[in-house]
Amino acid sequence: MFLPPAGFTCSKHFEGYPCCHRQWQHSGHCHFVHGYSRSFTFWFAAKQLDACGFVVDFSSLRPLEKQLSDQFDHTFLVNQDDPLLEQWQSLHQQGALDLRVMQNVGMEHTAQLLWDWANEHLKKRDQGRTCCWKVEARENISNEATYYSVPHWFEPTNSGGHPSASS
Q1: Residue 30 falls within a domain, yes or no?
Q2: FRET pair for 96, CA 20 to 30 Å: which of 74, 127, 143, 148?
Q3: CATH number of the domain to which 88 belongs
Q4: Are 75 and 69 in contact (CB under 8 A)?
């Protein structure tokens, strides 16, 4: 079982990102364009708390929240290898959809992508004091995917904690 890094943790939930996608290689109904209102939960860890006593000041996550909105709010997500990509791009240019091309639109890849985004933001801002160690990506109340890992640059303290995984 994976355990979070030793130290303090907190989480932040973001919701209300209606978008659509398709898994063109799927043999079932996921092959068709369909939509969800995605939501995301991020788990953060800190070696020590900041001057206000926070792991992460949630107001400092506004750039991350903007990335989420830009990527997922009323957008159409397609895989970069979708055979209809040229048609989707044409519809985007015509103003019929707001296209976002991703490596993979699935929730598993989405969770990993958002983990990367969060850690880029935190490493730059906090110089290694904090990290995101887990992201849950939901397409609805029933379906979610999780990605978790501790960034290689986050060296948790060992006092009173437990060992953590590293990537």
Answers
A1: yes
A2: 143
A3: 3.30.479.10
A4: no
- pLDDT digits 0-9 by tens, 30-86: 999 999 999 999 999 998 999 999 999 999 999 999 999 999 999 999 999 999 999
Does the pTM surpass 0.85? The reply is: yes
Give Cα separations from 163 to 7, 85, 116 (angstroms). 11, 45, 22
Beta strands in 22-161 (DSSP E): 34-46, 75-79, 99-102, 130-138, 144-148
**CB contact at 8 A, 167 and 115:** no
Assigned domain for 34 exists: yes
Strands 99-102, 130-138: parallel, antiparallel or unpaired by DSSP?
A: unpaired
In a domain, 27, yes or no: yes
Contacts of 98 (CB under 8 A, 6+ apart): 74, 75, 76, 92
User: What is the span of the domain harbouring residue 140?
Assistant: 8-148
Taking the C-alpha atoms of residue 69 and residue 60, their distance in angstroms, rounded to an integer, is 16
**DSSP-based three-state secondary structure for 23:** coil
Q: Are 128 and 154 in contact (CB under 8 A)?
A: yes
Distances (CA, A) of 64 to 17, 90, 143, 156, 157: 14, 29, 23, 23, 26
